[in-house]
Amino acid sequence: MDIMRWPSFFANNKFSKIVTTCFFAFMVLEAVFCLPVLVFQYTESVGQYSPFIVGTTIAFTSYTILYIKHKPFCHMYNEIFPTLWRLKSTGPETFDTIRNIGTRTKCFTVFLTLLTILSATLALPWFGDEYELYVTIKVFEDCLDKYATFFSVLFYISLYHGGFTIVLNVLTFMYLTLHLFFQCILLKKELDKLGALPKSHKKDKFYQDTVKTKLVFCIKHHQRLQNFMIRINNFMYFPIMAFTFSGIVCGVCLIFVPKFFEKSFWRVFCAGLVAFTLVVAFCYMGQLLEDTTEDMYYSVINLPWYEWNAKNKKLVVVLMAKSQKNMALSSSGLITVNYKLLIALYQKIYSGITFLVNVSHTSPEL
C-alpha cells in the first residue's frame, strides 16, 4: 500500500537514516542541556513551558519507537505478510470495497501530512512570543550568546522532522491494522460464500467434502490472523502506553494556554488539531477492527450447520470458539484502542484540569 511509501523511505533510505540520527542526537543534547537549566534556574516557569515539554516528550518517544521497533516490524512483515490472502482472492466486489478504503486512507495521509507541515510552519518565529513559548529558545538565547541563532535555526528545522516522525509511527500502525482489517473482510466474505453454497443432502459426499475443505481453510486462516493480532499487540505495547499517557498529560497542560499564549492561538490550535486527528484516526481503526471481527463471528453462527454432517459440525464449533472473542488493538489488556478510549481520554483530561483549577483557587500563589 502507498500509505507506507514515505515511512519506508524514512526507515530504509541511508541518507534519511543519517538525517534522522542527527535530529535525534540534537533532541537528546537539547534535553540534556535545557532540562537542568529549567529545573534549577527557571523552576517557576515549568507550568508555562509544560505544553512544549510534553510535546517534545511525544516526539522523543516517536524517535525511540522508530529505532527500537524497526527490526521487529521487518521481521513481522517478512514472516506474516507472505501468508496473507491476496486482496483479489474473494472476487472483484470485495476488492473494490478494499480499494475504496485504501483510497480514503491515502487521502487522509495527504491531509495529515499537509496539516503537519502547516503546524510546523506556524511554530516558526512569526508572532514574537517564542521566548515565552519554547524553553529551548529561552535557554539558547540566555546561555549561548552568539551561537543562539545557529542552534535556534536547528531547533525550528527539527520541528518539521519531529512532526513527520510522529506521523510516520501512526501511519505504520495504521498500515498493520488495515492489513489485518482487510484480511478479516476477506475471511468474512469467504464464510458468506460458504453459507451460500447450494444445499444438498447430508449424505452427498462431494458436498460435505467441499464444506470440510472450506471450513479447514477458514480455520487455518483465522488462526493466522489471531497470531498476526498477537504480533501487532506485542509490537504496539509500548507505543500505545506511551502515547496514551503523553496525550493525557498534554491535554491537561492545555489549561496553561489561555494564560501564557495569547498570541499563539492558531499555532496551538493547529498543533492540537494534528494531535486530535491522530488520536481519532487510530481509535477509529481499532473500533473498525473490532466491528469487523464481530461481523465475522455473526457470519460463522449463521452458517447452515444443520445441513452438514457430524465432522463438519465439529469444525463449525471450533471456528465459532476461535472467533467468539473480537480481535482488538490492546496494550496487554490495560488499554484497548477503540471509541471507549476517546471517552476515557476526555474523562482523564477533564479530571486533571478540574484538579489543577481547584488547586489554583485554594492556593492563589500557584
Automatic annotation (TrEMBL):
It is found in: Cell membrane. Coiled coil: none annotated. The keyword tRNA processing does not apply. It is a multi-pass membrane protein. GO terms for cellular component: plasma membrane. One of its GO terms (biological process) is signal transduction. Keywords: Cell membrane, Membrane, Olfaction, Receptor, Sensory transduction, Transducer, Transmembrane, Transmembrane helix. The chain crosses the membrane at residues 21-43, 49-68, 107-127, 147-178, 235-258, 264-286. GO terms for molecular function: odorant binding; olfactory receptor activity. InterPro entries: 7tm6_olfct_rcpt. The keyword DNA-binding does not apply. Its main location: membrane. Belongs to the insect chemoreceptor superfamily. Heteromeric odorant receptor channel (TC 1.A.69) family. This is Odorant receptor. It comes from Zophobas morio.
